[in-house]
Amino acid sequence: MTIAARPETLLIQGMLARRTTNGSFRPDPVSREHQHLLMRVAQAAPSHFNSQPWRFVLIENSQTIQEIARISGESMTELIEAGVFFERYRRYFRFSEAEMNARRDGIHIDHLPGPLRPFTRQVFSDAGLRLMRQLGVPRKLGEDNRRLVAGSPLLLAALLDKTEYHPGELSGFYSVFGLGAAIENIWNAVGALGMGIQFVSTPMEIPRQWQAIGGLLRVPDHLELMAVYRLGYLPDEDRRPAIDWSSRHRKHLEQFVSRETCDLPETEPR
Ligand SMILES: Cc1cc2nc3c(=O)[nH]c(=O)nc-3n(C[C@H](O)[C@H](O)[C@H](O)COP(=O)(O)O)c2cc1C
User: Fold this and answer.
1) pLDDT the model gives residue 1
2) Residue 115 and residue 57: Cα distance in Å, rounded?
3) Sign of the CA dihedral running 178, 194, 239, 134
4) What pLDDT does 124 receive?
5) Which of 97-111, 147-161, 213-227 has the lowest mean pLDDT?
6) Whose CA is nearest to atom 8 of ligand 1?
7) Which atom of ligand 1 sits closest to the CA of residue 246?
8) pLDDT category, 174, cuts 50, 70, 90?
9) Dihedral angle over CA of 52, 191, 214, 208, nearest 10
10) pLDDT of residue 70
11) What pLDDT sits at residue 128?
12) Domain total of the chain
């Protein structure tokens, strides 16, 4: 039997297939059973001294979802319009297959919105930014983003308990590490439930917008809002969104693993 066919490797196959969903979800609500299962897998994660510093808010109220969607879309428009997004993140974008294949990290810009496709190389320049503004791209991307979030049946807020989470101290690192492990468990589990998950991250980039979301969720002083995700069941047909920020490319072993010391890159048969 090949390794891939052995049932005990289903978990590993699932982890290798884990991915970010950038497209829309089916409108059906996520069953309470699945929501609670996701919370159970989250809390199965390791944490320092079993402190379990994570807290979660499950959000299904349609008004709250619409409001978070509005904030998210507005934030996207603001970030793109001001050029902040491309300035902050241009180093992660790859402009050719060759560049992507050499580095094997970042995101290949191969799916820009139609009007911009002929200008792929200029999109991160000042001239490209002016052109994008003229074509109304920031608003289009903001509206795409708002619609994706608004059409999600479930949002999930991840928070940390500030009695554990002290940024800049080891406990801060441990808490973030534990929350990351909990989120990764959720991320892996959604795949097995026919669901998808994506960060709702644009509001985090604009402090007043992040505060507004904190206000909507009535986050108390002893908790820190760390992240918001949108979740739902996946449609049968996987249509790619206007801009697909995710990538399946991964580095070769010798690009991120070494043996015995940092000096000797690990090799693997290809
Ligand atoms: C800390 C962190 C922040 C991320 N932020 C976003 C985000 O803002 N929007 C998004 O669509 N994906 C986001 N992602 C997902 C990555 O883009 C994605 O994991 C990467 O492109 C690889 O694609 P994959 O998850 O489908 O394998 C984030 C992932 C991490 C770990």
Assistant:
1) 45
2) 39
3) negative
4) 77
5) 97-111
6) 201
7) 21
8) very high
9) 130
10) 98
11) 83
12) 1
Question: Which residues have any ligand 1 atom within 6 Å of their CB?
Answer: 19-20, 22, 107, 198-199, 201, 245-248
Q: How many Cα atoms within 13 Å fall on the side-chain side of residue 250? A: 8
Within a domain: 127: yes
CATH number of the domain enclosing 76? 3.40.109.10
Determine the residue of 155, 199, 244, 248 to mutate for testing ligand 1's pocket, defined as the one with the most ligand atoms within 8 A of the Cβ atom. 199
Q: Is residue 18 part of a domain?
A: no
Name the 3-class secondary structure at 145: helix
For a pocket test of ligand 1, which of 15, 20, 75, 89 has the largest count of ligand atoms closer than 8 A to its C-beta?
A: 20
Q: What is the DSSP letter of 218?
A: T
Would you say residue 8 lies in a domain? no
Tokens linked to 245: 């920020």
User: What's residue 130's pLDDT?
Assistant: 87
What's the pLDDT at 270? Answer: 74
Domain that holds residue 183: 25-234+246-256
Task: Tell whether the torsion through CA atoms of 46, 50, 54 and 57 is positive or negative.
Answer: positive
Q: Tell me if 85 is assigned to some domain.
A: yes
